[in-house]
Design goal:
single chain; mainly alpha
């Protein structure tokens, strides 16, 4: 913020007094389980992506890999 004021991008520092050097973004340490997909929802979304006309197979592989790869197997198949 000081730099923006110095460069005349901002007129004043928007941070409260005393917070200039200690402005740290606070993050949560735990993931809220209510915001995660259950296996059925994940499979449905991956199936919907796979059926897209342009790039569906490629995007399916990408999203399945980012989701821990449960969708690379067809529904009903189990790993050996």
């Amino acid at each position: 913020m000081k730099y923006a004021v110095w460069r005349r991008i901002l007129r004043t520092n928007l941070l409260p007094k005393g917070k200039e050097s200690t402005a740290v973004v606070k993050t949560a340490n735990a993931v809220d389980k209510r915001s995660l997909l259950n296996p059925e929802q994940g499979a449905a979304i991956l199936d919907w992506i796979r059926r897209r006309p342009r790039g569906g197979e490629r995007l399916h592989a990408f999203f399945a890999a980012t989701n821990g790869a449960p969708g690379l197997r067809h529904v009903g198949q189990h790993p050996p």
